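Title: Prediction job returns without error message
Component: structure pipeline
Severity: low
Priority: P3
Assignee: unassigned

Description:
Job completed but the reporter wants confirmation the result is attached to the right record. Sequence as submitted:
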Amino acid sequence: MKAADLREKTPDQLRDQLSQLKKEAFNLRFQQATGQLESTARMQAVRRDAARVKTIMNQKAAAGAGTNQMAAAAATGA
């Protein structure tokens, strides 16, 4: 999963993606606990993808907050 692909998604799509990644991480942890996990590298990839999604979500939120602050400052004449 590339960050550039994530930046094109809407916040709702990012939340859905994060939810799916959390479910997958949960299932992978159970597989590891029961000895059924075949690829331990997938656990690391899922964790990193979730972090990537969270980072993009925070960047979008900060960008949205920044534009709101600028609009408020312009409205008050500051």
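Comment from assignee: result matches the submitted record. The chain has one domain: 3-76.
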